[in-house]
Design brief:
With about 220 residues, this protein is an alpha+beta fold. It has a four-stranded antiparallel sheet with strand order 2-3-1-4, covered by helices on one side. Strand 2 and strand 3 form a beta hairpin. Helix 1 crosses helix 3. The longest helix is centred in the middle third of the chain and has 19 residues. The radius of gyration is 23 Å and the shape is flat. About 10% of the residues have low confidence.
Length: about 220
Amino acid sequence: MGFGDLKSPAGLQVLNDYLADKSYIEGYVPSQADVAVFEAVSGPPPADLCHALRWYNHIKSYEKDKSSLPGVKKSLGKYGPANVEDSTGNGAPDAKDDDDIDLFGSDDEEESEEAKRLREERLAQYESKKAKKPAVVAKSSILLDVKPWDDETDMAKLEECVRSIQADGLVWGSSKLVPVGYGIKKLQIQCVVEDDKVGTDMLEEQITAFEDYVQSMDVAAFNKI
């Protein structure tokens, strides 16, 4: 259950696979779940476990503020792949809870006038929410230049590490290798971000954390969409 021994290569591999499509252990913001798992890891994962390494470096940046992160820390066994599909602990929703949030109220033939009024109000609120148009989300298209250390850097692995960075409001696009001289090529990669959720500072922090491959990152172009 959970990740197993996170001080072992097998446990770190499970963690890396789990984070392949997630930014955090639970939800979309750092929480006490990340703190609990972070404290169980003995140190930075190896560079080839790029998803786990990206997560580790990001959570490490909260080290001074980890006590203020939201949520309640649970035992390590409560987190990980074994809980992905069974987040309630019993594998099935509570029928009583479904009754408590019944949008349309009771279907009893002899329902009271008050019950009918409440049901009609709830239905009206539901229809009103459906009719509302979503707010316009401000987005930007960013072109990044990611420079390796030298001509022996594995550029395919470098790009894999960059693309492993995931966040709500971040979508990676096309990429290409651009010669910079002396046999060295830089990775030029496009991404689209939601301005309120993802900034260039966050991207630079997480990309340069892959220090075995990345020397630096620059913004080559930045355009509002």
